[in-house]
Amino acid sequence: MKIPRTPSQTVGPFFAFALMTRPMVVAADAAGAIRIEGRVLDGAGEPVPDGLVEIWGPDGDGRYTGSAGWGRSDTGPDGGYAFTTVRPGAVSEPDGCVQAPHLSVLCFARGLLKPVLTRIYFPDESEANAADPLLHALSDDERATLVAEPAGPGGYRFDIRLQGDDQTVFFTTPASGL
Amino acid sequence: MSTRAEELQRVDDDERATRDADPAYFTPEYVGTRLRAPRKPLLLLPERLSELSGPAFGTDDVRASDSDLTQQHDGEPIGERIIVSGRVLGSDGRPVRSALIEIWQANAAGRYHHQVDQHPAPLDPNFTGGGRVLTDDEGGYRFITIKPGAYPWRNHDNAWRPAHIHLSVFGSAFTERLVTQMYFPGDPLFAYDPIYQSVRDPAARERMISTFDLASTKPEWALAYHFDVVLGGTLATPLENA
Q: For this structure, is B161 an active site residue?
């Protein structure tokens, strides 16, 4: 017996005074710490200065625990967000499938009536990426939108393009309505 | 390690929104969606640990005072004090325990405590308008706040948002994350609001409207509204009854 879901509505432009942020998922000098930064851009290539980005990832061994792998960053005037988090490990699924190291990402903003869901994969994991069943099912152009670019030691750049020819690949799940 | 190509179903968001509780990303009556809504088909993600898991929050993340928005300053805020309570449930009807709910809202005059909000209505030095709470073992939650005012926005000529409280809810799965808006019964602005109207199914729209809750009022002190939140069940059959 299913009861019907509550619909999603936009986060609007005025959340910053109320929603806590957590850009430092781990300290910058923690073992395995990486920095991920990027911009959220609209269909005209303009920055989204009033967005909210959340990440969710496993620890270095691929385990999801507590709220340890959760981060939240609002976007600045240039649409920029940034996280310091732990480099995620590959995730072994109960059915034996292994997922390449990745972070799950939700982005909320004024003008988004529901969040967009995507994933960040890593450019220096080419072997694991090549074996990842999800990446394998994408076209080359689609896959390219999900792989971060190197940005200095321990740093990565991942832009979220909401709309346009180079739109980031966004996912939905069976019941979430995303 | 074997490479197994998974077929990813491509989902047309507009078509889905005709059957789903949620609005379509692209809802041009809400002008803000025109350049921000993804226009390519969504890929249906196989449910994997990444999305079936989600952050678990605890009592360290909230203080008891966070759920009373009228007690966050030295003085009492202006406006109609209200109690908002309800439950967070999964789509199987089971309570979602220890779910983090964050709320934010305009003050009684319809002004947000935010520098970008330039509506010429007064700020209230005794009201910020943000709160948080964890649900209890029955999925229950309760806030004390001030009834928010309606406010104008520039979506179209003479556009006004119906009074609402924003809610952000964490379920047990990352993909159960829900941000919604709770409205108040009988608001004359519903018919003119493209955000409320972005939900296509009238019955689904009504699930965003709180109900007057006489039993929870406190005589001589505050009226009360009830609002249950139902999150997506992550184990549901794909798109069935969506």
A: yes
